[in-house]
Design goal:
Length: about 350
């Protein structure tokens, strides 16, 4: 580090030099803005390399996602406030998949929008690798991959061009973007559709493309809002395998779902979300053990025919909230008009 500072001090070109120290994480960040004529010099290339190494060390030590007391309010048509999210808090570590489990209207999508910076919050804080997506959106989003619940694909482009254009938003060079796009399309088994227009794809292929697009920037945090809703079982399991691979490769995943099997298979921890609040948060196994224990659940399949099965997360949700996961609370949100910042 001493050698690095001496190189910067002895450089004769015009630059802005800032040195910041954070004892808590035990790293030093050095940022240089230098004139083009000296950008290729050996010494400055060394500074750039060391600066990149320090940044990587910082990111490796940072928590991928930290949410503290997040709140979101809307103003209804009657001018009354409706709190869609009521102060939720959680963290996601590297190599972890964290799930928000609840029916429509529980506040999952609103929470997702606030976390990714698309909705302003009404309170609390969000940090993505120590960056605030609301006050530092460019820094936070360069490490963030998002697959929203709605279809946001651009029908003006082919499949391949869609990927390359999206990569340009992250300032990825065209040649590198093309390589990444081809690799992802092959991995997601849609490479044969690379020259097709978006409207020519089936629903399952469009969903695969959305997830692939979210990965083209090599994010460290992947946010998936109801990623498999409406998909057939085969496509759903295919996407599950890709999400599991992303996590094994060191990524962190935040997923919202109302599918029991999805939450139990993918998530290391699950937050039971109900009316904008997190009522409990544990691993699926611990949630079942805590609230249901080893009791077998008796169900009536049809009149006069009953059977017993092992408990699952839907039984946990029912016991905690008194309502089934299939209950749709979205009607209350449709009555809302303007969100409050």
């Amino acid at each position: 580090m001493k050698e690095l500072i001496e190189i910067a001090i002895n450089c004769q070109c015009q630059y802005e030099f800032t040195l910041g120290c954070c004892c808590e994480r035990q790293f030093v960040e050095i940022s240089l803005i230098i004139c083009y004529n000296h950008a290729v010099s050996g010494k400055l290339q060394k500074i750039k390399h060391l600066n990149s190494t320090i940044l990587e060390q910082k990111l490796d030590s940072a928590i991928p996602l930290k949410v503290e007391n997040l709140k979101k309010a809307y103003r209804g048509r009657d001018e009354q406030l409706f709190w869609a999210v009521k102060g939720i808090s959680f963290e996601i570590k590297q190599n972890e998949c964290f799930g928000l489990l609840g029916p429509n209207g529980a506040g999952k999508s609103t929470s997702m929008h606030c976390i990714t910076g698309f909705y302003p919050t009404s309170g609390g804080s969000v940090k993505i690798l120590d960056y605030d997506p609301h006050t530092q959106p460019k820094l936070a989003r360069q490490y963030l991959g998002v697959c929203p619940q709605d279809d946001t694909l651009d029908s003006d482009f082919t499949v391949f061009d869609q990927m390359v254009r999206y990569a340009s938003y992250f300032k990825i060079p065209t040649s590198e973007a093309e390589n990444r796009a081809q690799k992802l399309l092959e991995e997601f088994k849609i490479a044969d559709k690379s020259k097709n227009w978006i409207e020519e794809l089936s629903g399952g292929m469009r969903r695969r493309l959305q997830v692939a697009r979210a990965l083209i920037s090599n994010p460290r945090l992947l946010v998936l809002d109801e990623p498999t809703t409406g998909l057939d079982p085969e496509v759903r399991r295919f996407l599950w395998s890709l999400i599991e691979q992303f996590r094994r490769d060191g990524g962190a995943v935040l997923i919202s779902t109302h599918y029991i099997e999805e939450a139990e298979r993918l998530c290391d921890r699950v937050a039971i979300m109900y009316m904008g609040e997190i009522l409990d948060c544990e691993s699926p196994k611990n949630l079942i053990q805590k609230h249901i224990a080893n009791e077998m659940v008796e169900e009536e399949i049809r009149p006069g025919l009953k059977w017993k099965r092992p408990p699952n997360l839907e039984d946990v949700y029912l016991k905690i909230t008194g309502e089934a996961l299939s209950k749709d609370n979205a009607e209350s949100e449709r009555e809302l008009s303007s969100p409050l910042s």
